[in-house]
């Protein structure tokens, strides 16, 4: 397993005091690490969404014109996938 190097960072004292009220001094680092991972994941998702914005052209997909059409399409894809799974595994 790869060793994780920990690096001290600086926080305003008032922020750490408030954090300790909710997570406790012993859980401070874990909370900050988990929160940072979640926020980085969210930021990466937003970047991807911005990068792909506009690639979907409604004229190219008339079968998805309404939300009902999209729901029907998803249902059909799931049914086809389930049928393939049954065929493959003999269920």
UniProtKB/TrEMBL annotation:
<protein>
    <recommendedName>
        <fullName>CopG family transcriptional regulator</fullName>
    </recommendedName>
</protein>
């Amino acid at each position: 397993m790869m060793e994780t190097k920990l690096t001290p960072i600086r926080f305003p004292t008032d922020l750490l005091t408030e954090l300790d009220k909710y997570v406790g001094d012993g859980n401070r680092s874990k909370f900050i690490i988990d929160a940072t991972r979640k926020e980085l994941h969210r930021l990466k998702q937003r970047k991807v969404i911005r990068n792909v914005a506009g690639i979907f052209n409604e004229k190219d997909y008339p079968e998805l014109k309404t939300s009902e059409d999209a729901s029907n399409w998803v249902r059909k894809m799931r049914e086809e996938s389930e049928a393939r799974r049954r065929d493959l595994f003999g269920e």
